[in-house]
Design goal:
The protein is an alpha/beta fold and 210 residues long. It contains 7 helices and 5 strands; from the N terminus they run H-E-H-E-H-E-H-H-E-H-E-H. The chain has helices at 2-13, 48-58, 75-89, 100-104, 109-125, 143-160, 194-206; strands at residues 27-33, 63-67, 93-97, 129-133, 163-165. Strands 2-1-3-4-5 form a 5-stranded parallel sheet, with helices on both faces. Strand 4 (129-133), helix 6 (143-160) and strand 5 form a beta-alpha-beta unit. Helix 2 (48-58) crosses helix 7 (194-206), helix 3 packs parallel to helix 5 and helix 5 (109-125) runs parallel beside helix 6. The longest helix is centred in the C-terminal third of the chain and has 18 residues, at 143-160. It is globular, with a radius of gyration of 21 Å. The protein starts with a helix and ends with a helix.
Amino acid sequence: MAAAGLCVLPALAQGTKAGPATQPATQTILVVGDSLSAEYGLARGTGWVALLEKRLTAQNVAARVVNASVSGDTTSGGRARLAALLAQHRPAVVVIELGANDALRGLALKNTEENLAWMAQEAQKSGAKVVLVGMQVPPNYGSDYAAKFAGLFETVARKNKTALVPFLLKGVADAPNPTALFQADRIHPRAEAHPQMLDNVWPVLRKLLR
C-alpha cells in the first residue's frame, strides 16, 4: 500500500489533475408482468415495481425500470409482446412475472411452461439476464394442479439457467392474517403488501445488476 502511495503523490504534487470520475452506464430492467406488477387497484407509485425504482436510487444503482406489465395478461400475451419490448428497450435484465392469469383461466400448464421458457430464451438471446418470478395458486384448485403449477417455474428456471424468485407473495398470501393484506377481491395485494413483494424479488435481482 505504501509503495502505491509513493507513485501517486509526486504526480499530484506536480499539479496533475485527476480526470472526471467515470459514471457507470445506466442499465435497464424490464418488468413484464400482470396486475400484480401493474399496480392494479393501487395509487400510482405504491406497487413493488415503483418501490424498486426508489430502492435503486437509494442504493446508488445505475439502473432504470421499464414497467411493461398489463393487468389481466397471460404468458401468451407476454410472449406476443416480448420481442418488441426487447428491441425497444434493450434491457440488461428482464423480470418475467406472468402465469397467475393462466391458472385463473384454467389454461394448460404445458402451454404456460412453454411460453415462459420461450420468453426466457428470447430475453437471453438479446443479451439480457432473466429473473423468473414464481407464483402459487390457492389449494381450492386441487393439490395436484397447485403443486404442478408451482413447480413449473422452478423447472423453467433450471432448464434455462435463469434466476428464480420462488414465490412473489411469500409473506403475504401465507401471512398469519392474509386477508388483511389483500384488496376486497382477495386476489390483488394492498399497497401495504408491496414492500414485502419487493423484498422477495430484490435479493435475486440485485445479484444480476452491475
